[in-house]
Structures are given as C-alpha cells and as structure tokens.
Records
---
Amino acid sequence: MTNVTFEDLGLSPETLKAVKDLGFEQPTEIQEKVLPVLMEKQLDIIALSQTGTGKTAAYSLPIIEKIDLEGWQTQALILSPTRELCIQISKDIQSYAKYIPGLRVVPVYGGADIQKQIRDLKKGAHIIVATPGRILDLIGRSKADVSMVNTVVLDEADEMLNMGFKEDLNAILFETPRDKNTLLFSATMPSEADRLAKQYMEEPLRITVGKKNSGAENVSHYFYMVQARDRYKALRRLVDYNPDMYAIVFCRTRRESKEIADRLMRDGYEADALHGDLTQAQRDHVMNKFRLRHIRLLVATDVAARGLDVNDLTHVINIDLPEDVEAYTHRSGRTGRAGKTGVCMSIIHSREKGRLRRIENIIKMEIVQQPVPSGEKIVEQQVLHFVDRLRAVEMNDPSQDALLETARERLADLSKEELVDRLVALELSLLIKAYKNAPDLDYKEKHSSRGERERGRGRDRKPMREGRRSAGYGRDRGNWVRFHIGVGEKQGLQAGDIIGMINRATRSKDIPVGKIEILKSFAFFEVDANYVDGVEQGMRKADFRGKPVRVERAENSGPRAPRAPRRKKERVW
C-alpha cells in the first residue's frame, strides 16, 4: 500500500465529503487498484479479493461519479447472491451518494413485496441492486429495463454460480447491451466463473488482492479433533475459553443450526440461529440482535449466512466442514476484515482430515491442530477475564458514594483474600462446578479400532465415498430414494461433485443426501424422499464439467427405510 488518499483518485467534492463522513481516510488495496482504472477508462475488470476488503466502494464510487442524473434510464445493474448482501450494497451506495440529490438506488430481491419494488422502479432507478431471480422476474414482467445500462457488476460471482444462478445470469446478461462495462468481483475464481468471463467480457483487466483462491492472511486457522459425539462439548469449551468471542458458528443444515442454537441458549449462552426456515422479519430481528451484540453467537448455515455484513467478528467456528471446499474460504472470510485479525476454528473427526488437507491446498495456508481447552485452563482463563473486567470498572460516579460506604461497612470483617475468593466464587461458581474433573476431549488414535483407523487413513488418501446425512453427522433417519448418474470414476467423478450438482440443481445446500456409490462408469446417490421431486426436476439440466449428464431414478428406487447399522452409531450431541 502507498500513501494514496481518496483526494488523489479524482472523486467529486460531494462524494469525497460522504466518504469522509464514513470515516474513510485511505483507500484499501482493492480500492486503490480498481478506482483509478474505472474513473479513467471504460474497461472490463475481474477482481479477486476476500470479503471485507472494500469491494463495494471500489466499484460503486466510479459508478456514482458517472451517473447522468438527467437521464431517466437505469445506468448500472449490480447483481448479488443474497438479499442481505443486496440490501447492504444498496445502503452503502446511498451513503456514498448522500450529497448527490436526485440519484436513485433501488434494491430488488426475493422475500419482499414485489409490488412495492415495482412502484419504486416506476419512480426511476439510476442504479438497480438485485438478486438474479428477482431481477429476472421483473425483466420478464417488463417492470425493469436493463437494455441501456452501461455497467454491470457481478458481486460475489463465485457464490452466485455455486448457488445455481448460472442460467439466470446468462438470461440477465443477454438483456444488457453488448458494449457495456462488466465488472466481476469474487473471492475465488472457479472454472464456471472463468467461462462466464470469457463469454461476456472483452480482454478484462485482472486484479488480484492477496493470492488467488486463498484465505485472508490476517486470519489464523486452527482445528480441534474430537469424537463425533463430543462436538457440542468442544464448541462450549472453545466459547468458554474465549470470553470475548463474537462469532458465527457454521453448520451444514438448518436443522443442526436450530438444534445447536437451542442447546446453547438452554445452557445460558447469548446465541440464536439463522436458517432458511425463518421469515424475512425473523431474519432481520435475529441479525439486528447480533449486530447490536445482544447475542454473541450466531449459529447459521452457509446459505443463511451468505452476504452478511457484520463488523468486528473475532471468530468463525466450523462445527461442520463444508462439503464444497471453497466455501471454507467464504466462511473464514467473515472474520479478520478491514485489516483486523481473526480466528477460524474447525471441530473435526479423524475421518475429516483428508478434506482438511484439501482445504489447506486451496487456501494455501496451514490449519494448525490445537488441543481442546481443558477444564482447568478454561477456569483459569475465565478468572483472568473476570479480574480484568473488575480492574476496568470506572469509579467516578459521586452518586454511588453513600452506597459504596454502606457496602464497605458490611464487608469490613472480610480480609482482602476472603473478598477476592467470594467475588470469584459468586461470579464463576457454576463454571467451576461444570468443569471440575472435566474429561479430556481430544481424539486419540488409540481409542479407535484397527479397522476404523485404516478406514480413516483411506479417506485421507482418497475422496470420501459417503455423502452427508442432514439429521446429523452420519445418523440414519427418514426414507431414501436412489438415483443413477451416467458418469463415474473413469470420468473423474467424486462425491463432492455429486453434492455440488444437487446444490446447483436445487439452489440449496440443505438437501439431505444419503449413501453415494461411485463405480467405474456410473454412480448412485440417495436423497431423502421428501426432496425427491425438486432434485429430479433440477437434475434434468445437470452437467458435469460442462457436459450434459443423465440423472434418473434407479430401478426399485422408491422410498426405503434405512438399513440397520452393523455397529452402534455414535450420537452427535
């Protein structure tokens, strides 16, 4: 970084004043690289940068500067994967443009009143910020016109593609002018995003802040290995060992996120869940509590947490590693933002070590194993935290003098040592009792059978052949329907590819997937019977590495009860 200021970037006095009001003194690295280019040229750009590095200002400030306020038409379209990010981008642009009267920004997204959005569009929109599904709906109704835009921004393009918006993006971009300025911002650059860029961008300038597909350098990565049944206990210990933790806890399914949040709340933690079953009003209520720090643990799925803009998160905790390895980058990118440091913790079982190593290869950073904090260490940490809070209490309110004098008189017979002992006992007695003689939770290889160890080593060497079970970490529940897919090991198919295809076909990461069998030229996978229709319909347009692939129900594929387990399953919580 150099000593470049916003004044050096050619911004108007009105925009500079708004930027100063927001407390921005110097541009971030991505802003310093992108802003001058867009201010001077009409150029397509691919910018790779992690979440929280200032991407919104990098593309929106030049857009604001170039808006023709006398023109009635929509001049810029910004696409984002989720309604939360859509709303946040819209608010940011309105903040940057608050001294530019007449500039209209309209957010349109699913889950809100479409008639109100139509009325807002009728009043005029210089800039539309939209989720792909809703803007495509509005274009189809002839309520949104993007035929005259001069700039299209694909924000978090990798997430939009991962959520299955590829066809929607193609349809939207088809409605825009060929000579527009296309800007693609992304944390990672999967092959689908690269193909999209080649199709719709002309000789784009590539700008990378940090390493391609890498994790943020100011985030430390740790993992804790425990038995599957001890994950929740390990989570509690990590929270108790970090008394100032302000974190998102990631789960794979909405059911797990609700179960874990409910248990945390029952155990006295300031926590709540964010998942797909919540209404928009409920989501807003939970997020408002989290932003105000009325809760300090937000338990969420990947889908629910996309697009969240929360400052100063100290930690991200993965109680489940994501099936999509690149999703780890997005999770960990929620902390360590705007130059601050953060910590990403993952609670894993030995069978997940192989996936952890693949994640390391992608983020190009080491994920260091740490011991789960012992009960003794947690109590010691909590006592030190209590002492620090006690020393930090300000004693400058004269109105309390009489009360304090009364308290001193009542406690005069206690020595300093007795007083300290009683204060600690009063504050931490329940915690001390909970962790008295607490067992070691760290997974020990010697605790597993020889066969189990060999299976674990095998999974470290080869891709996992087992899919996820929505009800929780390998527990069998519900009925399963079996599907046949016309590619297999010979074509390089892996379990993660099948789950990714299901995610894209259903635009959800919460579909319960059962057993996955990958054979030489074809494969089978199981889906919970309650989700079969959506999977079957979505898979009609399935593709593997860009080539269409046939997916259909296997013979005798009606719902079946799960087979009785050969050995006793471990319960998770």
---
Amino acid sequence: MDPARIRNFSIIAHIDHGKSTLADRLLETTHTIERRDMQEQVMDSMELERERGITIKAKAVRMHYKYEGQDYILNLIDTPGHVDFTYEVSRALASCEGALLVVDATQGIQAQTMANAQLAHDVGLKVVPVINKVDLPSADVDATTEQIFDVLHILEDPVPVSAKQGIGIEETLKAIIDRLPAPTGDAAKPLSALIFDSTYSSFRGVVLLVRVVDGVMKKGMKIKFFSTGMEVPVDEVGYLTPKQTPAPGLAAGDVGYLVTGIKDIHQVRVGDTLMESARPLTQPLPGYKEAKPVVFAGVFPINAADYPALKAALEKLNLEDSSFNYFPENSEALGFGYRLGFLGLLHMDIVKERLEREFDLSLIVTAPNVVYRVQNFSDPAWKVVDNPAKFPAYGDIKLIEEPYVLLTIILPIEYQEGVLNLIKDRRGEHVGIEYLSATRMMVKYNLPLGEMVVNFYDRLKSVSKGYASMDYHPIGYKQSDMVKLEILIHAEPVDALSQIVHKDKAYNVGKLMCEKLKELIDRQNFEVAIQARIGGKIIARETIGAKRKDVIAKCYGGDITRKRKLLEKQKEGKKKAKMLGSVEINQEAFLAVLRLDEESKG
C-alpha cells in the first residue's frame, strides 16, 4: 500500500489510565477482531498482565479502516506503561511516527504520563492527547485539558473518550489519520528495519517484530544484523492481525513479523537494525542500546531437589524475556540457586511470579540489591559489585559509589509532609518542587537506588493513601559511606542474610535482624549467639538461652555434693555441645528476616 495511507502509532499512558481498554475498542471498531471473539485486554495475552492490569510485553497489530472513501492501514504498537520497561517503550516509540497519550480525566497528569510524553518528544513523535473516562461523575475534563497544555506543553486539542463505554472511538480513529504523519520511507532504497521486540516459538524459533523503514523485505532474501554481523535467510514474513498472517513481503512503512529459523534468542538484540546482505548499510537506525539490569537478587528453590527444575524454568523463561540475566550461585544457608539481574523491582516481581506459576516452583528470593562501584587501596581500578558476598574486606576499601536516580513524584498537596518525610528517611537530596494546580504538586529528588528498591513504592502509596505516582531514571553514581552488614549465628556468618547498607542505618538494621532471628530460631541444647558485624566489629547481639533439663529432679534429699556433681556434668556437656554444635535455620526465619529488611527501611 502507498505509505501515505499507513499510520504507525503507539498508545502511551500511566498505569491504569485505560490504555489497554482503548486498544480493545479500536480493534473492535475497525473489525480487526469480531465482537464474538473479543475479550477484555485482548492485547494483554499473559495471565499476569490481565490480573495486574498492566502491559508487560510490547506487541503490534494491523488494523484496516475506511475513512472518506480511502482504505487506511493503522499499525498499533502497544507498549508497557511501567517505569521498569522504559527501554521497551522507547524502542516501540522509535518504530512509530505518532502516539496517543491517554490521560485519565479523574486523575489528571501522573508521573509516568510525563515520562512517556518526554520519551515521545525525544524521538520526535507527533502526540495526540486523549482524555479517557469522561463518562465518570468525578471526571474533570477542563482541568485535565489545562494540565496537558500547562504541564506537558502539548497544544493539540484533546480527544474526549470513554474507552469502556465506546464513546469517542470514531473520533480517535479520525484523529490518528488526520493528525499523525504518514511514514516517509522509500521502497526503492536499501533495506533498513528496526527490531522492536522478539518472541520465541518452540516450533519456529525466534520470531522478530520489525518496522521496515526503507526498502522491501521478502521471503528468501538474505539479511544481516548490523550489531553482530550475523547473516540469515528470511523464511517467512507477514502481518499481525493480531494472529500471524504470512505475506509476500514487508515494504517501507510496514510493521510485521519475521521468521528466520534462529533457535537461540540471545543471538538477537532487540533494538538492532536489519539490512540486506547484498546492500549493506553504513549506519544503523538510531535508538539501539543494551538493556542493563539494575537490581539483583538471589533465587533459590525451597526444596533443594527442585534445582534442576529451576534451571530448566530459567532457560525457558529467558527465551521469552531476554532482558533479565542469570548465573549460578551457591549459598551455604540456602544451597544451590541462581543470581538474577532485573530491570527494576516490578520486573523482579513478575519474573518470580512467572517462575512460580508457569513452572510450579516454590522459591525464596533474597533481599534485592543494586550494583555498587568499589575502589581498593591496592588497585585504583573501579570494581563492579552486584552481590554482598563479593564485597571487599572493610579495611581494603578506599571509595564506594552507589547508583542514584532522579525521582519525580506527583501528589495531592495534603500528603506533602508524609511523602517528604519518607524521601528524607531514604536519604533523598532535594532538587525542586513545582505546584501544578491549587491541589497538586510535583517534587523532584535525587535518591539512592538502593533505598528505592526495597519497599519504597508500597510505602509511598501508604503515606499518600494511594494518590501519589512516581517515575525515576538513572543519573549515575555518587560517593557514599556504605558498609557490608553480616549476620553471624553461633559465630558463623550467614551469607544469605548479608546486605549492603548505609553506615548511619547499619546499627538499627542489624539490631532489628538480631531481635527477629532470636524469636524465630529454635532453642538448642547450648547457648546460641546472634550477632551483627561490620568489618571486624560486632554492633549488635542477641543470645538464645540453652534448653535446660532438670538433672537434679531425681535426687530426693541426700548430700548437696551429689547435686553439684550432676550440674557440673551437665555444664561440661553443654560446653562440648557449644563447641561442636551447629544451628539449623528454618526457611520461615529466612523469609521473615527478608520481610523485616523491608520494614526496617520503611
């Protein structure tokens, strides 16, 4: 089709502003999916996506629409809404010419609305604002329109819709055609195509979702990956309607799928540029970068016999979601497991849930930690540390740097005190405050990522009664006074309970962990010491008393020396048991202490 009658667009929004519901109505109105086949959140095929009401994976669908006597093709590239998947959003936006920015009329602009609008602006997209949920009694369309103009500086007239009721859907489709630009590619030029996502099929191998910028991609053509130089033949190309529908080829401006027979998804880099082997390009399409994990945690099976099953599950899941990485880890306390790197806390939560649900595993996940940079006295080169167990000895460290993020929070003014106190407790550094209206404000702070990965989002929702929204992006590393806090049980360090904390918080965290473990660990036949240690210094201690059998109960009268003899014998036995004994920590204790870590930082 003539590229002038193609529109490639995305829908971007804050979580729960109605993005997936609007996509459903567009598919229904264009008869891409018949009403009898419709279900809610049709683009969200994963059970977890439906349950949580969020989009996790980018997807695409091709719609046909007749407007003013002309046939148009509308390619909707659906994107995740959560901050953890910002890179996935940016790739999807790079394959579009325009975007619909959905804003909830009852909530107004939220933090991720601003972040996604900025992403769209950065890649040069034309943005059409859509105000959703206009049918609700609490909707304030005028105030929301004013925020779009004043805060986002988008001067387009918003399209008022109710995605749930189907109001304003035709007007939205017309706005897509009238206001969004057509692709400008040339089919005669050498092939250049952007990979914006990939999936894995056990029968067909890796299936790539691509946007063709220039040229034509046909079955049988030999293509080349720009970043790796790997060459493969094209086995099949087609459109997503939303099912895979084979086609003779994809031309400039088209969005579709590509099958090459590649069996290892790790050979494909999402965001890479595809070109024809016979006519190679000198420059890749802009926007490619490696997705780097920022949060790490250990994952261990509760039942040690499930380790092979965990290994197989990680291999299969990594074929679908290559943005997390994993490598084997051995803990003295928890046995064999894996250390996983995630894009953020939500990403970690989703991977854990999928492992437990889809592969029927029971898992322990250690407290999440971030990547620190450490410089030793003996070696000036910076070392990257992603695991507390690898942290250098206290006396060897010259400098420690931890990652910081710029945190943006939008909240009602009445919750200002609670939110600012929370940020202060988490070592936030003030950047700025802006009042968006008489009732709403925006605060910006620099915050250590390590303070944010443990329970910050839940605490923010709690102190703001659920009304605050947040967004963040990395700003680099800053020097900090961090220490490794170790927990010793019966003089033995427990590696799974080690963590990196700020020096000012170490005593409180160590004391709380010792107190909690004292409650949870069973009493032994000997006295057990629970200690928190930094470097070589014990900063907190709790003692579990020994079980005591009444050995003199059988003595009726008689000389006191006989009783003393029995008590001395018992004392010697306990002393020997203390020297030779070991303490077994039950799984409940580990889980409770990991939860305590969240509470102590809250």
---
Amino acid sequence: MHEGLRIVLVLLTAAVFAVALAKALRLPSLVAYLAIGIAVGPHALGWLPQSEQTARLAEFGVVFLMFSIGLEFSLPRLVAMRRQVFGLGGTQVLATALATLAIAHFGGIAWQGGLALGAAFAMSSTAIVGRLLAEKLDLHSASGRRTMSVLLFQDLAVVPLLILVPALAGAAGPAGELGRAFVLSLALLLLVIVAGRRLVRWWFDLVVRRKSTELFMLNVLWITTALAFFTEWAGLSLTLGAFLGGMLISETMYRHQVEADIRPFRDVLLGLFFITIGAQLDLAVVWQRIEWVALVLAGLVAGKGLLMLVVTRLAGADAPVAFRTAAQLAQAGEFGFVLLTLAAGHGLLAPEVVQPSLAGMLLSMLAAPFVIERARHWSARLSGDEWLQRSAALQEVASHALNIADHAIVCGYGRSGQSVARFLAKERIPFIALDIDPHRVQQALSAGENVVFGNADRREVLLAAGLDRARVVVVTYPDVPSTGQTLGLIRGRRPGLPVVVRAADDSHLDELKRAGASEVVPEVLEGSLMLAAQTLLRVDVPLRRVLRDIEAARGLRYESLRERYRAADKEDAG
C-alpha cells in the first residue's frame, strides 16, 4: 500500500472518532487533534513519521487560518476600538513577552529564544474564549469587550511576529533581517491598500458574471496560494501573503461567500496542523521535566493572568471587570503553537524547552473553561463597585417599567424582538424590551422605544422589568442554555405566566417545553411550512386546503394556537 495513502487513512480514521468524542464532551476540536498527534506521533505509536511533506501540508492550515483573519479585518471596526485594541492589547502582548524574556534570561536561554518564547506565551485562544463568551452572552459585557479587543490585537500581531521569529535566527543579523522584513511588509501593505483592492474587486466582479461556483472557488484558492508564494519568495512568510489575500477580498461584497467556501479547507488543514503539533510532544521528556511543565502552566494561568489584571486595572477598569478579563486571557492560544513550532524549527529553542512549553500550553487551554467559569462567580467578591453598577442598571430598568402593567417583556431586541415589538405597538399593548447590546439599546432609545440594557437570565433584572405585573414574556434569542435559565426564573416566580420562546429548530422543543415554555416557535419549521404553503398556492391548490394541511402539519406543537383558530372559526360561522 502507498505510504502516503496509509498515513491519510490513519489520520482521517483517528480524526473522525476523536472529534466526535470531543464534541460529545463539549471540548474544542483542537483538543482532539492534539490528542491524535500525541497518540500516532513518532514518540508514541509511530504511525505519523516526521517528514517535510507532512509539515508543508500542515502549514497550509495556518495559511487558510490567516486568510480567514484577513477576511475579518475591518478598518472601521479597528478605528472604533482603537484605544482598547492597541492600548490594552498592545500592552498585554508587550508586557507578557518582556516578562517571559526576563525569566528565560535567568533560565539560561538566549535573548532571541526568550523573545520568541514570550511571543508564543503572549497569545490567547480566540477559538475557546470567543465560544465561551458567546455561550454565556458575555461578548458585549465590560470584560467581554476588553477581552475581544485584546484577542483582536493578538490576531493582528501574529503577522509581524511571524516575520520576527525567523528574523531572530537570520544569518545576516537580527537587526538587518528585521529591517528588511518590516520594509517589505510595509511595501506590501501599501500595495494592497493602494492598488490591490480595486483590482481584486474588478476581477471578482468579472468572475461572478460567469456564474460558475467552480470558477469562483478556483479564484479564491489561486489568490490565497499565489500571494502566499509571493511573500515567501520575497523572504517573508506564507501566512503574511494569506493575510493580505484575505484583506483584499474583505473589501469586496463576496467576503461572506468566500468565508463560507473556505471554511472546510481551513478547518481540515488546520486540524492536520494541530495533529503535527501533538506529534512533536514527547511524553517521556515531558515526564522527566514535569516541574517545568508545572512552571509553564502556572506562568500562563497565574502569571499571565496577574499581569493582565494589573494592566486592565491601570487602564481604568474596576476590580471585577479586570479580574474576569484577566481570567479570560490566562491561557495559551492557537497561534502560540504556531510561533513555538516556528521558533523550534529555526533552532531558537532546544527540545528541552519546547516539550514542557507545549505541554504547559495545552494544559492551560484545557483548564480555560473552568478558570473562566470560576472567575464569573469570584469577581463579585472583589469589590462592591459591581453591586453599585448593578443597582444603577436595575434602577434604569425599573424606571422604564414603573408606569406600565399588563405588559409584555421582550427578551432580546434583535430583528425578531423588533418585529414582535412592532405588532405589540400596533395593538397598543405596552412592552419593555431587554437587550445586552449597548449600541442596539442606544439606537432604540434614540428612536423613542422602550428598550433598556439588561440580561434576561438574571432574576433581579426580570423583577425590575415588572415580571410580577407582566401579561406575557417573549424570549426572542435562540440561545438554549440562557433561555432555559430564564424560564426557570420565570416559573419560580410566576408559574402560570405565558412565555413564548423562539428556537432555531425543533431539536430542543421538548427540552424548552419541560423548562416551562408555553409555546416554542422553531424558525426552521415555520419557514418550511410557509415555503410549502406558497408552493401549493402556486400550483393552484385551494387556499382552504393549504391552510388545513399547514395546520395539520403543526400538530400538537401548537395546540393552543389551533384551539384559538377553531374558536375564531365558530365565531365567524355564528
């Protein structure tokens, strides 16, 4: 059997089972890929040999990841968040790198290796932290905004760091290599900004006119690989070219389509990259230097966290916000592995340093969900300021609900919440809407709408919104854990209050019903029913028969609605 085919089959088989297990345990896929690498690598089962071809293919995972970051790079967004991104984020990366450099110096590591190690340790996990903050609806909280700003700066800092690490090992001397690299980078960025955007926009307009998805995808892959090849030919990195390619396409109207098309390539190739990272981990060496693994883990979680706590406090955040921000950034990140591998490949770090560092970084990422969750509970004990802020926020909610009764509480004021609010206003039914996006709340208040900042999965917020006087509650966001928590709070206070809940599909319908929802409206089901109704009408099926079929399809899921239909029919007949 062909050796390459055997390796691919082994990796795919292991990935299928390991990723499925990780998803069942609600762990990031990254953990599964690293575990596969450790198991099949040359230091364990030996099924994955160390070869240049495998490493080169894995490098394309990082290329597509950087391309995706380039797609998300938005100059207006960066300008709006510039103080926190460049101020807080820049200080965090610089302080972590310098602190690591100082510790490495006392450990006998050359300054070039210490700086490369500091750059790797400065990175945090965008994938893990972003997912956890989104699940807890904390992206727009004070700590969430600071955390995402720092993560955004780290993503941007990867580009110069990927240039810096090879330059530190340059034969022409670090100063000369760095100067050349940054001059070339600046020239390429100017070329992209001045000439590239219009050219790529014109070219993709031309491609799209051919109405061929195959041709569209070929052009995306061509631009990515061509720019990566060009930057490597110029003495820079593959990933810088991919980042520039993403930036070019982000300026066109096709960025979202490109991102959707490129995601399968990115995820699979990035998975292969992390398998090769795991394969480098020699558990025997790690066990022999277990005290260094513990030191790296403590440095990332406690040391990096403490450093971030000080930086955030000096930036003006109160103690609870600073504590939570520090906990959310106290782990290693995906790009930390990239930088560490790059430094090892250029001989800046010895295997005795790389192995404990890899192990400590991996353990810090595994500990991240627990650390972040504990920080949510501990932050309230650090200072009474948070209670003052909560009191002020609750007073704001209560002032908006003071003079209304028999009203509706709309939880979430996105498009669905705004649509519900319009119907309520049309029927002159008073309502108060709660949302955690400050910009959306500000826009709604400017338009004279009764919307306030508040998290509906907190008991005191619901009470301030007039839960005891409310006529109905509508939950318009499809986040199942948060919705379940909100339902539990409502049922504990008002067992008989009608609660209508939006769901993305009907997979959680029974779970939400058991949690106390009066009605659950699955968007996919309703969309498919309306699609079927329109189709039947277009082929001349009588309207009465269409309505009957749609009502029957809803079944027992909308029993209360069907009873009202029948009552209305009797009234019309009477």
